[in-house]
Design brief:
binds nicotinamide-adenine-dinucleotide; UDP-n-acetylglucosamine1-carboxyvinyl-transferase, Chain; Dehydroquinate synthase-like, alpha domain; alpha/beta; 4-stranded mixed β-sheet; 4 domains; 728 residues; Rossmann fold
Length: 728
């Protein structure tokens, strides 16, 4: 990493050049510095000086060629050391020359503007401009040393000094130490040194700007567009970029801090460039080309959460435009603007309805079907056993019924059933009504999950069940049944009783779940659907999936309102709908409007207590919420998580460890205690288990912190295929 040093007197530049360990010193000097500081450099053997056009005028490829040829002609070798003396433009240009000469020689910087002392000279990004845009021709090449002398600032033009202050305002939010130094009227030496060191610390963590380094772009997303539209100096545009972003995202506290900063440095007298009207579309045309655009329709913006806690958030360009328009039209607050989303519908409901549709004789239309792999697998299994499935408006129609649709064959029919508990455990009792031999071929994870309860009850009903090392689960019926009540052990899952109850329901056989300690609401959902099929209903609208809804709602608790357009009401049969009750208890406000479910977010998020006996899928999401709530949270009945698609209990604790969230699992009483904190803006690379819920919750942590790389993203296909688009 580069070494940052302070020096006191401008005359010391000669001493610095003499101390550099090279017999060939190549100086690139900004022409304004050359005219202002006459005799700055003593001519001596071994030093060559190239006077570069002042400021931005040097940042072009022809000038790079000229400088390279100049030094090559004078004679250079691989031990030569280049020194840039000037502002950010000069160091950007000189750094690129150092990168190219002999494929890279060492270089150092003596920054002479405020902006270059606190920012541009640090971090090794070197570039010149192309006719198509700024800094498009460049490289990463760290300077060896950065020598800072605040006395250079005395000759800086006011406009250039203000430009540096704009960039300084960014550090005021990024780093608590800079915030305190400025508020306590520390000297410019101290302030510039701390800013430089802060940037250095960030660059050390993330040299190539894959994660945390992006926080240095605070104020730049809108700042770059403002710079273009109003042709303002870079730092001044960053200052207005900060003002605007705080306004449009309703960051009142941060706006107050920025006013405080402006008061200290006299920036409150600056004229706001968009006094009359904000040119939203023109700005959007520049924003859409910004390097922070991460997909065709989304961009990363940096938002502070108070002081010293920046977060990287992804927002769709449409949403950003709407924020700007609302501000331009005088509505002015994010609270007025609402993110609109659609979440997947319930696979629990859909897979139950599919089995019942296959069992009952009437044609059945299902509307608002989820795209989850569990449902896709169920549909393909049903087609393989003879049912007809047709596409219809906004859903599907299922024709035929089982076992009437069964084809005659002595062959074993193989069914690829995936890793869904509902798919495998619901379809097996249905298959046991038929005559053929059906062999289920699930994906690997299903091998570890309990199935004995179902095998036992089907054996008792005289179905032939084969389970050995070559066969995961083969069943051949038909079951012999007489009227009565069949008991099924549900201590490990209600899905066994649910599958059997649905298959036997047309024959008026009752199934009694025994040891039903969890998932009572899911059992009630089964009974309610059976009742509706018995009554001859033929059209069913699949409600939204409340487990999936938890993720955007939890995120909205920290970021602002959301409208869930396809949520028409609370489906109490889905235990995870308890999350809505929790948000209400915590002071969250919501409303069912004609356009969907409107959740207004939270003003304050406090710690809470919740027993998740019947809603274990919510636990990772609750841990996320608890991580950023004020105070302690207690989440009870969590041990069951160990038996999910992954060991979610340990996975979620590992995740909290990654973010230094204090937590403790009290094994005997089976509860998890989490102590909330603030997001810390760190970029963290995460390798969650191949489990959709762990991948989604990991992403929430990354979103409210400093991003990072996330593995196993494809797992979201299981329940929330467009999760990443929706959440952005
Ligand atoms: N590489 C990075 O990480 C990074 C970060 C931020 C900005 N930048 C780049 O920095 C450049 C802006 O830098 P800047 O604000 O320092 O402007 P600058 O280098 O263009 O200098 C502004 C003006 O000040 C003059 N000047 C420099 N030092 C002086 C002094 N002590 N006294 C009097 N005049 C002086 C220059 O000749 C110029 O006319 C832009 O090109 C921007 O892209 C780079």
């Amino acid at each position: 990493m580069s070494e940052i040093k302070l020096f006191e007197e401008i005359n010391d530049v000669n001493k610095i050049l003499n101390e550099i360990d090279s017999d060939r010193i190549l100086v690139i000097l900004d022409s304004n510095i050359n005219s202002l500081y006459l005799d700055l450099i003593d001519a001596r053997e071994g030093i060559e000086i190239y006077i570069a056009p002042a400021g931005e005028d040097c940042k072009n490829i022809s000038e790079v060629e000229r400088a390279c040829e100049f030094f090559i002609e004078k004679g250079i070798h691989r031990g030569a050391h280049l020194v840039a003396i000037g502002g950010g433009a000069c160091s950007d240009f000189a750094g690129l020359v150092a990168t190219l000469l002999l494929r890279g020689i060492k270089w150092s910087v003596i920054p002479t503007t405020l902006l270059s002392m606190i920012d541009a000279s640090i971090g090794g990004k070197v570039a010149v401009n192309s006719k198509f845009g700024k800094n498009l021709i460049g490289a990463f090449h760290l300077p060896e040393k950065i020598y800072i002398c605040a006395k250079f600032l005395e000759t800086l033009a006011e406009e250039d000094f203000i430009s540096g202050l704009g960039e300084l305002a960014k550090y005021y939010f990024l780093d608590e130490q800079v915030f305190n130094l400025i508020n306590n009227e520390a000297s410019f030496e101290e302030i510039t040194l701390r800013c430089a060191k802060y940037k250095q610390e960030i660059v050390e963590q993330d040299f190539k700007e894959g994660g945390i380094r992006k926080v240095l772009n605070l104020g730049h997303t809108l700042g770059h567009a403002i710079e273009k539209v109003y042709e303002l100096p870079h730092g001044v545009a960053v200052y207005w970029g900060l003002k605007l972003i705080f306004n449009i995202f309703h960051r009142d506290e941060e706006s107050e801090f920025l006013n405080q900063f402006s008061g200290i440095f006299g920036l409150d007298a600056l004229m706001c460039p968009w006094e009359d009207s904000l040119p939203v579309e023109e700005m959007m045309s520049y924003i859409a080309k910004d390097k922070k655009v991460v997909s065709r329709n989304a961009i990363e913006v940096i938002l502070p959460n108070g002081i010293g806690a920046p977060s990287i958030q992804t927002i769709s360009l449409d949403d950003l435009r709407q924020h700007l328009l609302d501000y331009a039209n005088g509505k002015g607050t994010t609270k007025d603007f609402i993110k609109k989303i659609k979440v997947p519908s319930s696979k629990s409901f859909a897979n139950r309805a599919l089995i019942l549709a296959a069992t009952y004789p009437q044609d059945v239309q299902l509307i608002n079907m989820p795209e989850s792999t569990d449902v896709v697998n169920m549909l393909s299994c049903l087609e393989s056993i003879g049912l007809t499935i047709e596409k219809a408006d906004d859903g599907i129609i299922i024709r035929g019924s089982f076992p009437e649709c069964e084809i005659e064959t002595d062959d074993v029919i193989e069914l690829y059933s995936g890793d869904g508990g509902t798919t495998n455990r619901f379809i097996i009792p249905l298959l046991a009504l038929g005559k053929n031999k059906y062999s289920l071929i699930p994906s690997e994870k299903m091998f570890e999950r309990p199935m004995d309860e179902l095998a036992n009850v089907l054996n008792d009903l005289d179905a032939i069940v084969t389970r050995d090392e070559n066969t995961w689960f083969q069943v051949q019926g038909p079951v012999s049944i007489s009227r009565g009540v069949y008991e099924v052990d549900c201590s490990r899952s209600t899905q066994f009783a649910t599958g059997l109850a649905m298959a036997l329901s047309p024959r008026d056989i009752d199934v009694e779940p025994v040891n039903l300690t969890t998932s009572r609401p899911y059992w009630d959902m089964t009974l309610n659907l059976i009742e509706r099929f018995k009554n001859g209903e033929q059209v069913f609208e699949v409600p939204v999936d409340f487990s999936s809804l938890g993720y955007p709602l939890a995120y909205a608790c920290l970021t602002g309102p959301v409208l869930v357009e396809n949520c028409k009401g609370i489906d109490r049969f889905q235990a995870d709908s308890k999350f809505i009750g929790l948000l209400e208890e915590l002071g969250g406000q919501f409303d069912f409007t004609a356009n969907g479910f409107l959740f207004n977010g939270m003003d304050n998020l406090n710690g809470f207590e919740m027993d998740c006996r019947d809603c274990p899928d919510l636990i990772p999401t609750l841990c996320f919420l608890a991580s950023y709530a004020d105070g302690a949270t207690i989440i009870r009945s969590v041990e069951v998580l160990i038996h999910k698609e992954s060991d979610r209990l340990n996975a979620v604790m590992d995740l909290m460890k990654l973010y230094d969230i204090e937590h403790h699992y009290h094994e005997e009483e089976d509860y998890l205690e989490v102590i909330g904190t603030k997001p810390d803006g760190r970029s963290v690379d995460i390798v969650p288990p191949r489990d959709h819920r762990m991948v989604m919750v990991s992403y929430l942590y990354q979103l409210v912190n400093g991003g990072g790389n996330l593995e196993n993203k494809d797992c979201v296909e299981k329940s929330f295929p467009n999760f990443f688009e929706v959440i952005a």
